[in-house]
Amino acid sequence: MTPPPNTRPLIIAIDGPSASGKGTLAKRLADHFGLPHLDTGLLYRAVGWLAERTGKAPAEIAASLQSSDIDNPELKTDDAGQAGSKVAAIPEVRANLLKFQKDFAYRRSGAVLDGRDIGTVICPDAPVKLFVTATLESRAERRYRELRERGADTIKTRVLAEMAERDRRDSERAAAPLKAAPDAYLLDTSDMDADAAFAAALAFMARKGFRTAGR
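and the corresponding structure tokens:
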């Protein structure tokens, strides 16, 4: 017999493409429910970033990756994001990072993880699954504004093209492609701000039996 949702560790699996708002939503849900949060994209960014700078094989780096390796502000750059997307297509890299992610997720307290294969591969039995998406144009606009605020010199057409290419790479890769789990709640944030997305996610979770912070 499956225990009721409010008696099991709360694992919130959030997937979606870049700039959809999943990271911001994941942090807010983690704060609200008092759960640890892991941005799994940072793992792949760290592997790609280190591979480019050390010359080591990405799979080798992934096998020995430490928590301290993802505490690097350079991983927030768009270049690191592109490097992470490339190594994420390597099956050996994904396999070597699997234990890191599962160990984080399946702790007694529960956890919030966001990425591209959390609900399909890492935590297929998570009681809460969200697939956060938005139109390519709205996501590119968000990323463009974010980069400009950081002082980056870029143009919208370049951001749009790079994001379209990353979407294609993430969705078409053979190893754990980006896709929504069959039982995931689809949250389209194209016309939502962060507060509206958070409210929609909480309403969905309330229907699942998770109504207040700490359950």
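(Above: one complete record from the training split.) The two ends are 21 Å apart (CA to CA).
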